[in-house]
Amino acid sequence: MRIIEVYKIIFCSQSKKYKIIFRTLENDKQFILYFEAQYAKNIAMASENIISVSLSQYELVINLLSKLNMKLNKVFLRDVNSILNCILSISDSKNNDNIEIHSFIGDAIILSLKTFSNIYIDEKFLLN
């Protein structure tokens, strides 16, 4: 597993979607996902720490976790039977009792950006 970060967001005219390029912290490998405009916009705003009404649902989740004395620790993008799965790793305030919750990739990325949590990915998905 390697830590990745959002590197670039580019409009792809062929697919009419936005290409979000992630890279490893060592900058030697990349990972690419395509999103519709609204998700790409939300990811861009979360990466820039912009407060927006369209991100308020994520604030609700973060506030709920806070009220429960829990926090998002990590996001994992894992290979399960050659399919990319996304898992949120949540723990209590003392880092006990890790809970893993499956999530849509776009939502998990936004939550990780808003909580400054690391995103980990299986090496299998990284491009040179």
If you had to describe this structure to a student in words, what would you say it looks like?
- The longest helix is centred in the middle third of the chain and has 12 residues, at 56-67.
- 27% of the residues lie in helices and 42% in strands.
- A seven-stranded mixed sheet has the order 3-2-1-7-4-5-6.
- The model has no long low-confidence stretch (mean pLDDT 90).
- A hairpin with a 4-residue loop joins strand 1 and strand 2 (17-24).
- It has helices spanning 37-47, 56-67, 105-115; strands spanning 2-12, 17-24, 30-35, 70-80, 83-92, 99-102, 118-121.
- It has three helices and seven strands, in the order βββααβββαβ.
- The protein is globular, with a radius of gyration of 15 Å.
Quick overview:
This protein has 128 residues and is α+β, with helices and mostly antiparallel strands. Helix content is 27%, strand content 42%.
